[in-house]
Amino acid sequence: MTLNMGVADDQLGQYYRRTAAIADRLGKSLEFEAVMDALQRIHDGQIDPVVIRVGEFSVWLEAEVGGKSKDELIALNKGVERETSSYAADIMSKDAWQPGQVEVVKFARVKVRELGFSKNPTTTELWARIEELGHSLCQPADGPALGVAFKDQPKGDVCWMAMKQITDSDGDPSVFALGRGDGGERWLGAGWADPDGKWDLGHEIVFRLRK
Residue 112 in contact with residue 202, Cβ under 8 Å? Predict the structure, then answer.
């Protein structure tokens, strides 16, 4: 390994002490793959320094939400070539789904493991961790609004809204998801999120950043 000789000795000392402490925690309080992902982002210059602080995340997307009806949001999604699935339309028709007030919100998007989990958490555990870190769950209208705002979603990409579940017509607790197929088709969907259901550590979720 070649060291940058422009780095002061005290900085090198801090670096070695910190990396030794991280190595000692691997597989214990720190999940190995999460550390490797973070190190790769640092290596590639793709990480904001603030993200290194526990519970702090970069702004993934800032968008105006609220104030629009179900039909308006479905039409707006269609206008950006994103189709609303029957499952998403179903939960948007429930009383628990409300347009909410117009506001501009900053959202984070992270992998489940980035919230500090080393084992697959339940929905209840995952939602609780977001709030423990001082952030907020998405509001009911956030998913459809983000479907309009997220115009550059890459092919093969899927993310889920961390939100209070809405019971669909089949009696299942559901949350919104945004996806784009390998063929380029964009969709606003909804999927089952049982309170005791487990989330894969690699799943990507969206929530509101603390104000």
Answer: yes
Q: What is the pLDDT of residues 27-73, one digit of tens each?
A: 655 667 777 777 777 777 665 443 444 467 999 999 999 999 999 99
Same structural domain, 18 and 87:
no
Degrees to nearest 5, angle at CA 62 with 207 and 126 = 5
- C-alpha–C-alpha distance, residues 56 and 54, integer Å: 6
- Residue 94's SS3 state is coil
In the chain, the number of structural domains is 2
3-class secondary structure, 187: strand
The first and second tokens of residue 63, run together, are 């968008």
Distance of CA 172 to the CA centre of its chain: 22
* Strands 173-180 vs 158-161: parallel, antiparallel or unpaired: antiparallel
Task: Decide: helix, strand or coil at residue 110.
Answer: strand
* pLDDT at position 2: 45
Contact 208, 161 (CB under 8 A): no
HSE-CB of 81 using CA atoms within 13 angstroms: 9
Let me know if residue 195 belongs to a domain: yes
CB contact at 8 A, 174 and 168: yes
- What letters, b where the CB count within 10 A reaches 16 and e where it falls short, cover 157-183? eebbbbbebbebeeebbbbbbbbbeee
Helix or strand holding residue 208 (H, E): strand 204-208
| Residue 133 included in any domain | yes
Residue 201 is part of which domain span?
A: 61-208
